[in-house]
Amino acid sequence: MDRGSRFFYALEKRRGAKKHVTCLLAEDGTPLTDPAEMCQRARAFYATLFSPDPTDPNACRVLWDGLPTVSTGDRDRLELPLTLAEFSEALRHMPTNKSPGLDGLTVEFYRVFWDVLGPDLVTVWAEALQSGVLPLSCRRAVLALLPKRGDLRDLRNWRPVSLLSTDYKIVAKAISMRLGSVLADVVHPDQTYTVPGRTIFDNLYLVRDLLELGCRDGLSFALLSLDQEKAFDRMDHGYLLGTLRAFGFGPLFVGFLQVLYASAECLVRLNWTLTEPVSFGRGVRQGCPLSGQLYTLAIEPFLCLLRKRLTGLVLRELGLRLVLSAYADDVLLVVQDPGDLARVEACQAVYSAASSARVNWVKSSGLVV
After folding, report:
1. Interior CA angle at 88 toward 85 and 93, to 5°?
2. What pLDDT, in 10s, does the model give residues 298-311?
3. Sheet of 222-226, strands arranged across
4. Which domain of life is it from (predicted)?
């Protein structure tokens, strides 16, 4: 083990200082510096963010129409009960040296005592499926705030990450490993996030090749980057579960996810002080092994709608039509027909009505080639 040094302690001090909040802006823009008032503001902000808004069933039907579905064999396989062997495999693949949940029990702890704890976790999960809800210790998370760019007095410029208990993450990881085996069957190749065999380099290479092609052949087009505001945190649970059903996932598998999110809540951590609980009524929990895959599935109907309605860039010599490239919520659109701009706005309106998503047009950007 490396010996502690002045450099090491200074580095840790600087890292901690970045996460220390000295001032927050109230909803009306008033600066708050009192610790109690800042905690109240943080709790109120996330209580509002995680509260569901009404969604439009007609918009959902538009998005769900004609989606690809998993095969009957995969659907049946995903419906099987989770086993001790799957939990063991999930634990083996989980990273170590990660922050635990409220109980303080780490991945390393579970690995040491797995012979004792593993069978008990199978029993707890079976009882949760019967009751429809996990024990409070599993469904309650600590919400840690990580700084992003911008004015850090504004809570919108912090990324909320859920510190979940390891037993919850083992179950979620086991489900995630099942889900990963079928993602490529229902998610279009131009979305690369969390899909096995695809990487962000696929997106980068596409943009590079497009720019090179435009310069070489004198093509005129534009690249439009959409910025989804609080993308993971605004996702409506009803829309998410309905999307899974539209992709052909069976009732038992969808039920697994319903149990994981039923009566979920979090305590916001601000300068090591925990707020009162906040209900997690919408959003996918950043920090959950399943969150990325669930978001990929949730945004895919929107991307399908864009592929249907936009002209994109037609490369006749290659027999290709390029419409978009996506990595999670980072969606890059290829626009040649000016009419596509209005179509993008119309598609976004449908997606927002169905899922509570919200595009930030101010932060969205474009590049004319």
Report:
1. 125
2. 999 999 999 999 99
3. 324-327, 330-335, 222-226, 365-368
4. Eukaryota
